[in-house]
Amino acid sequence: MERLIQNGKSYLLHEYSEESEFERHVVEHATAIFGMRSVYLDIKKRIGEDNILTIPDGYLIDFSFETDPRLYIVENELVTHDPYKHIGQQLLKFAISYKASGRNIKSFLLDTVLKDNGKKKIVEEGLVRAGYRNIDAFLEGMIFEKPVGAIVIIDEITSDLENVLSQLSMKTDIIEFQTFESGDDFIHKFTPFQSEIREGDEKGGPKVDPSEIDTIVVPANEEGFNKVFLGENCWYAIRISSSMIDRIKYIAGYQTSPTSAITYYAEVSRIEKYRDSGKYIVSFKDNPTKIGPIELTTKKKGSAPQAPRYTSFRRLKSAKTLDEVF
Questions:
Q1: Cβ neighbours for 225, distance < 8 A, ≥ 6 positions apart
Q2: Which residue from 80, 90, 100, 213 lies 20 to 30 Å from 286 (Cα-Cα)?
Q3: For the chain, which ranges sit under pLDDT 70?
């Protein structure tokens, strides 16, 4: 069984038996999961009509992109639930009934935000940066003028779940939230939502303005890089935030050790779901173009990309070292 060790204390993986307990932990740590400038609303309201009634677990107003805030529904789930009959059906029902229930959703979102001064302040500051005149116009724009997304928070990501979500037209993100326990002490393990986009929030502000992000940098070993990136003019299987799908215009390849540098980039032709997984394949418009090399100049742990990272094409083209890319 997986375990964590802290200060000589052993923490074992906690197996949730009740969804209510899992959801309580998610709500308690909502700020850490979703970010300081986003608002999680723990609202359970029935929406839809007749045979498509559904009750989402919550809603997220996300300000990761200041000029383009988005609304997400949130489903807190346990791996023991059937991904087809339970999770898939819930999201499908919501996708079908969302637009028809827009006025109802706007009403209870507005009511909930106005009752909480902390959340109200975040939303008011965010809507000003996004160019809206007031909360009413802001919610109107998010609900009726932009596509809604979904976030599934679950204690274990499985291939069955990824398969189900890959069939839905609604853009969906998955967050694996695990808990480890030692007596009455708990440690929670998760990757924050949009962490690769707002990774600088806890370091005095992001180095790359999220509104400028249009390039994804992917790490690759020599064999895979030569065979796929250069040989097939594509790259897969990449886990990409749903909010980034329409923003990515370029892809750059970081060759791992011993090269340790970004050596090629390509303009993106299309991004499609990769098979029945929760990942994507990025196809290029043309053969990759040489660049740099933009080398890793430090041996500081964590400096080299271990997973896809985002930047702007402008920064990529002007960078001399990897530090200048991110």
A1: 253, 255
A2: 213
A3: 48-53, 198-206, 299-302
Q: Under CATH, to which class is 201-324 assigned? A: alpha beta
Model confidence pLDDT, tens digit, residues 216-253: 999 999 999 999 999 999 999 999 988 999 999 999 99
Residue 51: the pLDDT is 60
State the Cα–Cα distance between residues 272 and 216, nearest whole angstrom.
15
Question: What architecture is domain 3-189?
Answer: 3-Layer(aba) Sandwich (3.40)
Question: How many Cβ atoms sit within 10 Å of the Cβ of residue 35?
Answer: 22
List the domain boundaries for the chain. 3-189, 201-324
pLDDT score recorded for residue 48: 61
Distance CA 261, CA 213 (A): 20
Could you check whether 3-189 and 201-324 share the same CATH topology? no
